[in-house]
Records
---
Amino acid sequence: MSESPQTLEARIAAVEAIVARLESDRLELEEALRLFEAGVGQLREVERVIRAAELRVERLIAEADGSVVAEPVDGAGP
Amino acid sequence: MSGDLFGRSGRDARARPAAPGPGGQRGVPRPRVLTVSAAASLAKDVLESGMPPLWIEGEVTGWKRSASGHCYFTLRDRTAQLRSVMFRLEAQQLPADPGEGMEVRAFGTLTIFEKRGDFQFVVRELEASGAGGLWRVALERLHRRLEAEGLLDARRKRPLPRFPQVVGVVTSPVGAALQDILRVVAARAPWTRIVLSPTRVQGEGAGAEVARALALFARRRLADVIIVGRGGGSAEDLWAFNEEIVVRAIAASPVPVISAVGHEIDLTLSDLVADFSAPTPSAAAEKAVPDRDAVSRHLGGLRERLALSLRRSVEARRQSASWAGDRLRAGAGRFLARRRERAGMLAGKLDALSPLAALRRGFAVPLGADGTVLRGKADFEPAMPFDLRVADGSVPCRVEDRPESGP
């Protein structure tokens, strides 16, 4: 789980599915173009996530009321 | 005090009890009479003070754990036996109940259970003499049980996510294991979020903490994959990862679990039940997240395939269009040929009907100077020139002057 609606895994899997469809199915040209654009968009997003990110370390804390929160750990990291 | 008592009772023992009745006579020291309780208590004191706590080895028989949690058994060798008890508090610490006939070493106090007058050994610690002792026994029993339940089945192992965004870590917040994991993930997949659920990883209660941490992750699906473990240590240090509560928490986790219990020889039960077992925390981190270069290559490959397949798609359309053109041209050609054929046939028919055909059969047509057909006698005048049209041309002619003789 993450705060973005789509995980990296889901995005990459979506691109792979698009490639598979494009490679195997006989599609209408419009459909092929639409898929291509969707795929490129997803790839761009994945690359943005991968480039921008810096390792974040959080600590899981169970609250008294039974809820669980993750809060950033200061100075953690290598 | 008991020494004192012993001394006195020793002296007392030499004196015969005075008869009859109570009350001393003639200054003879009155013999001392003890109650049963006092005697038992005395014997108990003597025994306990005379024999400090000690180790005794022997074979366990008739081990029984009562409802109250106390354990009763007999220690024996070839020629003697000793009733023994291990009270709940101490018995709780045992990793497993010893089996019938198991050779053990027990540490405790020889005493007398006054209520029943039993001579017994109150055991505080108990260990099996064999390699690994009771830990080994506990491990093997749990191992068999888990196996019977199918929890060690390789088919239960789930695939790990290829690109986890959140890696859960259950380990000590101060151990080297955490630092190793952070270092590896930062180098390979710095976009990852690491969520640590800090626990102790050894000592009393560590297993319960680890199990609780796993359950926390499970409850909210707070991670895509979980690493649980610690750096290397002795077999005792790693024991928490053989505890049933930990093993079952791993098995029950809805999120795939990588075990990382630094060990050189034996796998822990946690390793056996985890979806992947890594030999060290660093190796676990490497398994958990992909390497950034590999991800980039994969993405590049996908990008190329996307472009290529689109190009193919367009190319296929062009090809189709071209085939359609070919088919159109071919169709049109066939259409024309049919028309041409039909036209030829019609021409033949026309020809049959043509006056030229009559001419070819020997008929001739007289044509006047203006080209009109001379159809009857009235069209001819004496000496009038006209053309006689025959099959291969026309012949100039002239009407004779001789007047017409009768109709």
Note: The longest strand of chain B covers residues 54-65.
---
Amino acid sequence: MTSGSNRTVWLVLCAVLFGHTLMVTLPAGGGSETGIVRTVILAGLTPIEKLFDVTFYGVGSIWNNYFALLDTRRENERLKAELSQLGMEMEQNREAVGEADRLRRLLDLDPLVGAERVAARVIGRDTTTSRQTVTIDKGRRHGLHNNSPVITPDGIVGRIIHAGLFASIVQVVSDPESAVGVIAQSSRLQGIVRGDGTRYLELEHIDDHIELLPGERVITSGTDQIYPKGLLVGIVAANGPDRDLMKTARVDPAADISRLEEVLCLIFAPGTTQLFEELEEDVRTGSRIP
Amino acid sequence: MDHAINRYGTFRTLAKFALILVSIVVAQGILSLKFRVFSYFDLPLIYSVYYGFTMARPSGSIAIGSVLGLMQDSLSGAAVGMNGFTKTLIGFLAASASSKFDVDQPIIRVLALILFTFLDLALKGMLSFLVSPGATVVAGPALGFWVLSAVFNALFGLILFGYRSRFVNVAA
């Protein structure tokens, strides 16, 4: 390489590195807004991801429907027995469910009341090794926006951090930069659940002499203004080490975040979560009687 | 006539590269979703090093690394430009190293891939810290992850380089 072309290469390198640094530091790069570069690349790449996903899904369903049906008769017998057992249990639970439903309606505090639900399919996982995000096949065209909560029937998955036109990036609760305001269901202890990049979550709470017991359910508190109150986050697995004034606990996420396929995205009208807070406050203080 | 043929050739080369780059990033996202082990691999990093070592063109490596990084950022939770920065630098370093070292030696390739994986993760950590100093730094699980990622990248890169060497030998 001649010294002239050598200098050109160095100049190009410096210019490109400067351009990337500028993108990282600009608010659209790392902030809550989805920048134009990401929007354009997302719009271009996600259709290809969807195509691959459909192909994988097709091959998987051929396998499941034609080749994996060995031993079906025995499985069928077992399922029939299980079904009748579940039928009896359901009968016993129906009354309790009805009562809970009536109470929830009376209180008007169902966490999903007023939320529009959009079903989405997970089509990809984070392409970098340091973050925990997934790509879903719905975006702004489907009504989603940044900070929309994402859940499964088992529990919360995370929130949308970059809503593209036809696809979005969801930050999973296990992401090292994720934080969710939570409350322990029986002890009513408030805290923050953070991801640490592993399959477990870490619950941080102030040491106020209340012990969290393994098996306790941890639900959203609604204080983060993103997730409505009352959604299941996970189950306390064990108490962790103390950190200054804070105590920690390891939480097993309720949603199977390593095997996500379909998710529900919630869209709240502006101010709905604040409305829940106010309603609950009214009920607590007695100004609103259910 | 010659001019038209040249233009067609350039277009074909660009289209081929675009297809390869898109396939790498999309494959990374889909394979990580379907097979958990792929979250340890960094296919764009491996390709940046592979291109730098085999083509030895610094300007081309800068472009390839930059585009791969930007696409990788867009399909992840990372700030746009984060992987663009690291992959650009790694592509350039790989291309520059190919003129100074004998990168055909498997041991050099393995060491380079391990080193570049650590450099990539360290640079991203530093950039994250500069952008948001309050970001959580998780040292314990991260170190294990770095080592595993480096080992997986080195192994996969070795297979890729081995495959290319065989292909070149057969062609020769």
Note: The CA atoms of residues 110 and 230 of chain A lie 8 Å apart.
---
Amino acid sequence: MNNTATTEGRTDTDRIVPRAVLHKQILDTAEQRPGTSMEELAEEISFATTDLVERVLNEYGDPEIEDDEETADEKTMTTEKTGPEHEPSIDRDDEPEGDDDVSEVNSAPPSVTDGIDNDAIHDEIESESNDDAMIYHEGAVDHDHGPDVSTEDDDSQSERQSASDVGLSDLTEKQQETILAIFGNGRQAKSFMHIDDCIDAGLHVQRASPRSPSTSVHERQPL
Amino acid sequence: MTQIADIVAEEMGLDPEYEYTGGDRGWTDDVSKMWVSIEKLSAFNWEPTTEIDAAVRTATRELLEGLPEH
């Protein structure tokens, strides 16, 4: 298995960067360095263009602005929820990652989610999940030193610009099979149980607890 | 997570290159380590039949078997 936790020391000329990785780098850098212009962020982050930085910050929300507006937003939301003609809505533009959206939707209070078109939300989540799978192609850039924007010719700039819109369909079959974006550092540890065991455990407890509510239902007399 | 990716990739017959987004959490509100105890189930003399790695592998196979052929 080819695990590449970092890209240090790589000088290959045909490397691919998952879109999720690049987006996270942009958001993290923007959060860590408030006040940095989009142009400076683009220069600092390998394979990012000013246009891409602007697009990512607009799409997911600029962490710098988010911090400033957090309190104001909370007040606004409270007012909207209590308004007489409250139309429930979820503003997902300020969410950093697609997976957050799932937990956000699932954990949203009923007063916020009531009346929302669940199919539309599902489609949006699915769309963003696919977006995370998209990748960026570095082309012939030396990753050790990053792209030298000041000396980059028009062709290189054009290549990088078009690379920002590379999707799965633009990749070779081999490329699609060889890149997998993993959120985090890969060391997250969760416990899992096979569904058969899960069901078996539930039934076992049910059988072992004759007075449990789930079994007493069957013992009730018909109305 | 990497172990799971390894298992899934192996079951799919793929050899992907991993790119990590970084940090000890995959996303906001993610939990880096979460171990759910089966102590109470054990008190009822219940034991799981499948180890965690095997469970992931089995579930992967079942999902793959359920996928329509292209």
Note: The interface with chain B takes residues 1-5, 17-18, 20-21, 24, 28, 96-97, 99-100, 103, 177-197, 200-201, 204-205, 208-209 of chain A (CB under 8 Å).
---
Amino acid sequence: MRTTRVRLLFVLLFSFMLARGALAQVDPGPRGGPANAGGPLAGLSAAEQGLFNDARDVFAEVDSVSGGIAGEDGSGLGPTFNANSCAACHAQPAVGGASPHPRLGQVLRPNPQVAFATLDRLTGRNQVVPSFIRVDGPVREARFIRNPDGSPDGGVHGLYTIAGRVDAPLSCTLAQPDFAGQLAANNVIFRIPTPTFGLGLVDNTSEEQLIGRFNNTATARAAAGIGGHFNTNGNDGSITRFGWKAQNKSLLIFSGEAYNVEQGVTNELFPTERGGVESCEANPTPEDHSHLFNGASTTGTLTQMSSDAVSFANFMRLLAPPADTTNTLTEFNGRALFNSIGCNLCHTPTLVSEESIFTNQTNVVYHPYSDFAVHHMGTRLADGVSQGNAGPDEFRSAPLWGAGQRIFFLHDGRAGPANGGILRAILEHSSPGSEANTVVNRFQALSPGQRQDILNFLRSL
Amino acid sequence: MGWTMLATLAVLVSAAGAPLRQPLCEASAEVRRAIDEATPPGALEADFERASSSLRAVRERFPQDLFAHARYQDAVFDGGTEGHLKRMLREYQQLSAEHPQETLYEYLAGRARLGRGTKKAVRAMERILEREPAFAPALRTLAEIHGSAAFGDAAKERVEREAFAALCPGSQIARRPSPLPERSRLLGGAGFAGDGRSAERGASNADQREATAEEIGRALQADQARLMRIRLFDWYSEETKARELLDAQAECWKAWRMTVEHHRRVSDLAKADALLAEMEQRLVTLQRDPRSALYRLAARTVLGLYADAKDPQRLRDAFDRLRRSLGQTPNPAHAAELDRLQATLVARE
């Protein structure tokens, strides 16, 4: 009798689990197989492909303080920094991408930021890995919301300093920021690296088109409670489109800003050393600059004569978009649902580039899944930081191309493999004040199978 | 009238026993004592911030004393960072602007460019001498500059030296730049030979065999600090800077090898393996550079350490990994080096 009862219980439990498995939707996780990203735009000339290859090498160059450390030939690192190379963080699924993961995705690499606490440091001079940086977590930069006097900060505070590195000036003793104290005061927000695939096409898309497509959806957006506006440049009033709040005007500005903020390398766009600590300033500024000489010669390739920042921008300009793999019934169904419930109102699927200086890059139809406008995303996602015209709870519609291979989602990487991944990211769109509430409600009203179709579709991008 | 002729005139005027002004040859005993107290031997090397702060205090105590200022400037030249050097220049430019008619501050602002914009320093000194041919410090500074390797001009130096000697008999003219710190003995200081031999030389040195990770790190740090004394100054040619940079990178490979050996010696195999893995990653980076001058040294160092571990499988795996990564950016020279190493090291097994 007892045995029968146990058997019945087991069968019921098994049936429940089976049903639940069939009904509940789950993020399939980062797509395996080839990277389908990281190469040059299709149709480039041989010379342009050569430029791409050269520029990619610069993008992957590792920086030390003065270039005197073997394998870290670039110079200018610090005084504060989050990483020592663009490619360290823009890694998954290929150079140019986003945060890597030690067990998922294509590159299978731990968060590089953990190693920077000990890399090239003297015995006993290691720095502390901040609590929000984990081996299997997203690459992050930290911003403080307020200054100690209560005024808005919003700026990036480097995770590490060069103090204690073998190549730092002997007099440099600059300490890391007090992240534990700032976290306790709820004064820290995070940003993760954005993938750079295909951004040359975005850079080369006219404002008229962005505005036109945005206006085309005005009625549908209004019906779904979606507003939105473009972030704009304070000088010429033109649309800015790069970065989590669309705060950067161009790929070149984006490169210069990131080089300075993330690696501490002053350059012709951002020539001022951050931190203002004389004892840690090791190089004349700008540390990265155009070259008058290539060795003893006054000529060289474009990359040899250009600043690193220009080469970074060239790499991104010529970097192909990620290729989607949408080809199954569930993925096609998911795409249709994605559009029908209104995800596409902000994650605009298609744009077209305009006249290009590069071969075969004029009028290229591409699929970024973004309107490049900023939207109120509600209290849950609000980070309290304003950038340009983007307010404390406003974010650019994150381009979804390549989402299939991304490990972490949302501006601070809060959604990832540990907590539901892309599904969690969708649900986080909903909170008081979010323009996405109606669309998320529609998503939740779908059947589990339909929701799964959408997740499958997103993982095919 | 050229500055050389003016300098000659200065000598004549001085010889006639009619100095144009107090010649400013040496610091007064009081100032010298204050300087000595502020910077006892080794103070600048031990703690630059503290020593330079003491010298700033001397400067504030004797605000119009040229030698108090010059000693501070020399301390910054010898131990300051780019940030300190910039600040010093700003300070003296501002002082000069605040005292437009005073040669002392004009001189100090010009002198602040020594080794940083030396040609501008020369012009500043020449301007002063055109107005005050017997301003001994400017003659002294010009003689220092024209006695240097980078800005050497024997004829000018002789005239300046003689003019200065006439004004300041017995006073010395410093060598520019100041002597560089020696390369660390621990890391060999043999310079880069391009083939890895320099980094392997001295491996039998007992100090090197016994060195701890901390000592090796300090040696590496000292050599990187020495590099900064070269990088930031126009006393050194671009070729010299490039060579020194390569030497410093070569020393890294030696330092890391010694550190792995140290960890193995004290049976801290986890640390040894972690550092070796990190070195291998750096080698992979070099593999992508077709012009890398250090590839051979790096490959020999990394693979030699794998071979030293007496684990043939690990050595083979390392070769396999390197060949795979080399396959992404093929380079016949690098591939040949791997072949040579494999023949040597596997045979050793």
Note: DSSP finds 18 helices and no strands in chain B.
